[in-house]
Amino acid sequence: MIYLDNAATTKPDEECLKRAEKYLHGEFFNPSALYKGGYDLQCEIRSARENILSLIADKANYELIFTSCGTEADNTAIFGAGRRGNVVTTSGEHSAVFSAVNELKQRGIEVRFANLNADGSVNAEHLLSLIDEKTSLVSVIHVSNETGAVNDIAAISKAVKAKNKFAYFHSDGVQAFGKIPFILTKDIDFYSISAHKIGGVKGCGALIKRKNIVIKPVIYGGGQEKGMRSGTENVFAIKNFEFAAVKKYKKIKENYSATQILHELLWEKLDKKLFTKISGKKCSPYILCVGASGLRGETILHEADDKGLIIGTGSACSSNEKNRFSRTILACGVGESLADGILRLSLSSETTKEEILTAAEILNEIVANRKAIMA
Fold first, then answer.
1. E strands of the chain, at which residues?
2. In angstroms, rounded to a whole number, what is the distance separating the alpha carbons of residues 340 and 131?
3. pLDDT by residue (tens digit) across 355-365?
4. What angle do CA 3, 178, 59 make, to 5 degrees?
């Protein structure tokens, strides 16, 4: 099996799983319990929080709230900070943000969507034109989960604050954390991350926020996570997240460079007569978005699956939506014929050259045969 759908989820890292196993067996206690076993686990969570936070932010100014996933982290930021006036976001957000801001619209908050460039990055000039004195929150995805476009959130957040210093700035960093070398800058107020995109297990994410910001939680109950996210903590998943994140960051630049070479090789080997590239030159090396005009991406996906190649047609989190075409891809200016044949080929640091060469061969064969049948 060749797995090129790592933007949807990654294979859990065996070493990190093994290290975290003890929190499923011998150290299974409730971390809120007052006896020694519970207290010890609370210390383990504190250690995980500090270690993950130190990878991307200044611990003196930021804090980390563990959640069940990146979607919950996005929702916590959106519903916590977008409580008045208007909210500004992009047309290319993950459904966790897109659906959340549309719920805000139902609650009486005006929502404004910024246009995208052809590669899926936000048109920063248009985004800034939408911000005024009533803007309470601006949310811009760091790396597009569909095209891999990288938004310069450091520059964008700075420009946002220059126009409205009271507006909060949030970024969905799920496809960037552990993959793109980056440190949070002072103008970024909220940043969402997820474990299963970097070799951790599903069921754990986090929202990083500035310490001086007070927002209401989405989930109420026992007051865990300083009242910001009630519910008994999943210590196994939290520690697994810590181990996976620390491991990724030890080689983040090395992995980035190696994956960039494979990304370029994959596009080089795909037949340009059959495929159109959507991802731009400045996209994440971990995502290559292409299209086969006149064909159904879903059909190609199933044929590839039969041949041992697993790929995506876009965001897995949008697979249940009724719309035939990806709203993000259409917002890039792609016509419906090409948008119907979109494929998302997403790599990991474990992807090999041999897998890339075989994947390109399989895709070229499938699409060429389909085109021949239609001719």
1. 2-3, 62-67, 86-90, 110-114, 135-139, 168-172, 190-194, 205-210, 276-277, 287-291, 309-310, 342-346
2. 33
3. 999 999 999 99
4. 160
Task: Sheet with 190-194: list strands edge to edge.
Answer: 62-67, 205-210, 190-194, 168-172, 135-139, 86-90, 110-114
pLDDT for the residue 335: 94
Say if CB 109 and CB 355 are below 8 A apart: no
From residue 251, how far is each of 136, 180, 201, 210 by CA, in Å?
Answer: 37, 11, 20, 27
Compute the distance between CA of residue 243 and CA of residue 23 in angstroms, rounded to an integer: 13
- Whether 289 is a known active-site residue: answer no
Average pLDDT, the chain: 95
Q: Is the dihedral of CA 99, 182, 63, 40 positive or negative?
A: positive
Alpha-carbon distance of 173 to 192, in angstroms, equals 5
Annotated catalytic residue, options 16, 69, 317, 332: 317
Residue 322's pLDDT is 61
- pTM confidence score: 0.95
* Maximum Cα interatomic distance, the chain, rounded to a whole number of Å: 73
Per-residue pLDDT at 315: 56
Alpha-carbon distances, residue 285 vs 13, 15, 155, 183, 289 (angstroms): 20, 25, 21, 18, 11
Reported as a single tens digit per residue, the pLDDT across 190-204 is 999 999 999 999 999
- Determine the Cα–Cα distance for residues 53 and 245; give it in Å rounded to an integer: 10
The list of the chain residues with pLDDT below 70 reads 315-322
63: helix, coil or strand?
strand
Q: Check if the beta carbon of residue 340 is closer than 8 Å to that of residue 296.
A: yes
Q: What is the pLDDT of residue 373?
A: 85
Residues 367 and 180: their CA atoms lie apart, in Å, by 32
